[in-house]
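Troubleshooting log. The previous run stalled partway through. Resubmitting the same two chains, unchanged.
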Amino acid sequence: MDSQIRSIHQQLVNKDITCTALVQEKLDLLAKNSHNTVNSLLIDTALKAAKKVDDKIANGEEIGLLEGIPFGIKDVYMVQGTVTTASSKLLKDYKSAYTATAIQKLLDAGAIPLVKENCDSFGHGSSSENTIFGAVKNAKNPELVGGGSSGGSAVNVALDYTVFSIGGDTGGSVRQPAGYNHVYGLKPTYGRISRYGLMAYASSTDCVGPIAKSVEDIRIVLNVMSGKDTKDQTTYASAEISEDSLASSDSIKTVGYFKNFIENDAIAPKVKADFLAAIEKIKAKGIEVKALDFFESNTLVSTYYTLAMAETASNLSRLDGTNYGNRIEAENLKETYAVTRSENFSEETKRRIVGGNQVLSQGFSDEIYLKGLALRDAISNNFEEDFKAVDVIISPVTPNTPPKIGDSLKDPLAMYLSDAYTVGFSLGQLPTLTVPQGTETGLQITAAKNNDELVLKFANFLKDTI
Amino acid sequence: MSKIMTVDVLSSIKGAQPSEAVSKLFEVIKNANASHNNAFNNYHNSVSLDDLRDDVVIDSPDSEKQIIIENFPKEKNGYLVVSKVIEE
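Second attempt completed without errors. Output:
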């Protein structure tokens, strides 16, 4: 099976390359920061780790599959001793005191982190323009956005600056940039990977997600990061997904898609035509395809943003210059809080905090927040019914191709609506993978909760089908 | 004794105003049909009582303490200065 990780592993074992040369080459590429993907480089620790791998190989010791594989980390993960900014002014000097569980598992497996990657500040955005490190440029066309919020991670993988990267997906932040840059990006089932050490945006949908160039690499990295963690009590124990299990997709007999995603005015004609052509190719393989009813896009987007804003207003209240962040002193404590937050948060982050406090306040909470929760229940129930009728659901990743840099900032509502196809699966906490096929920004494959394996199986099947 | 708090006070953000884009999202929710109105979550992320983690104090390693100190660089009489937090 096609795998960048396996291929590099073999080159290291065969002594075709040294780990030090590999890491140095990637660091040199990243140092140019040609696409604004880099918030900070982890040069010393990476080169030290690479030397250890080379010494092991020289001594004839065996190395693990991930040992010596260079990777990137979205700058919202704690990695002890590294500056973790969330691409924000507030945390531009904040140093992580500990390491996130998901990242620690990769370190324990011997993978080598090279870079903390640019993203939308606190995950607030769909274009990676809401950042103090400059807008991330698309890997295919640098005049376009890299997507977001894990834009730096997707672009680094697409350009081979990292072999894989770890993004974070709350409403589409791994899947959409993966689609915009033609790579794979997985949002696993909520709770499969520990969120401990991932800076919280909306805790009820935040997911750790790998971005890579092959289904096999996604599988390898997912297996390493998965598992129950007492430090995140929403995690659950999951079985390892074997390489062999992906070889056959015989268990997938019925595929669904949402009619209203395709039959509306918001979708670009070419995305629609390409999606329908992909459906025909799947049918030609003898798989039954069913058109399903679903909620209107604007209901999905509004429900997601209402709940996400409420959660982020709460999560970010600790960023007051006392518990965390760059404090700006004023005449009294309350003024200190207010000045610190006003000066250090971006416009988009402020918009979301204010929106969240609005919906949580008296008079609004019943009418908006509680109704949003009820809508979320209805959306989840809808998915449960759908997965009685179909094995997987496929959808476009986005209605349109990536916008030009600068356009999303002018029209926040349009940016929110561009998330129409990704947010529903976040609310349902379902495993969903972007594959770089089918439409200009890829396809999403979704299965029922805890069925991440089926998603990867179908992705493997699609590789040779469309 | 109800005191109206505006969003700028609630958010600790000076001059904050509700935004037009976000208000449009809320209008959609207000007008949406939700089949049931007070259901509290289907997501079953709760933890069983048998599965709670031990209630123990775990001392942070020195490396972690050192970084926490670096994040709060002000010191007075051997204590970290974080801020005055009680004022009224």
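Takeaways: The beta strands of chain B are 75-76, 79-80. Chain B touches chain A through 51 residues (CB under 8 Å).
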